[in-house]
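[Backbone geometry]
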Amino acid sequence: MSSVIEFLKNLKDTALSIGINDIIEILVMAVIIYKLLELMKNTRTWFILRGLVAIALFFLIADLLNLNTLLYLARAAMDILLLAVVVVFQPELRRGIERIGKRNVLMNFFRGRTYGGAEGFSERVRDEVVTACLELSRTRTGALIVIERVDPLTDYITTGIALDSEVSNQLLVNIFEKNTPLHDGAAIITGNKIAAATCYLPMAGTVDLDKTYGTRHRAAVSTSRLTDSLTIVVSEETGHISIALGGKLSENLSEKKLRLMLDDVVEEHKALRRRKTLPWKRRQKDERKDS
């Protein structure tokens, strides 16, 4: 308890001695840390970082409670942990260094995510996806369409060919047309954009599906376990439409059921856009609607 009181006293003395330069430095560092965290949130690094923070908090509590055995083990494992962090974050470190070497790095740094568009996953986008799935089902053309919800799919997007195109049923049908360059792999939709095609979806662990299911269904279920995305699968053998969500597969969906499940994504995107809109801008939009 005495150490906590001493820490608070030192904190008070430090706060009283803070000058204008210190405030500027704090604000600059806060912006940099915020932007770095924002960049990390677009990748799986965010979840790894949260795990590391949880471990750090655990050992901080161990230090406060004088759990010496745990602290000894933590110090002994520190060198290995630092090496493991470098190995785990290697792809992100490499991408970060590559971005620093680009000419427009400062503009890119202060710019948010570019995928998705202002419209988001709207009713129009839903209708285009449903129309495409029905046509693909009719012709028994295999397809794999991943729709981003809250968890960013940047890591998966970078494995494919970037498109950043408006969602249309004609484009989706054309992407999965047999014997075309883009038909293999997944198409990823973020907002009202087809971000990329031929994307690789990793298989995470054992997928408990019947052996009659192919790699498309297994990849869809695997991706739905790793992220909160919604993945539509059109079977090449039967033409059936399925959706993988939360590690579960809903099979042989009708047009009505498919549309209802996509409605949830539409409402989710509407809520996200409302949350991101500043209060005074939201008021201006409401006034324009009323007038």
Remarks:
- Confidence is low (pLDDT under 50) at residues 102-115, 278-282.
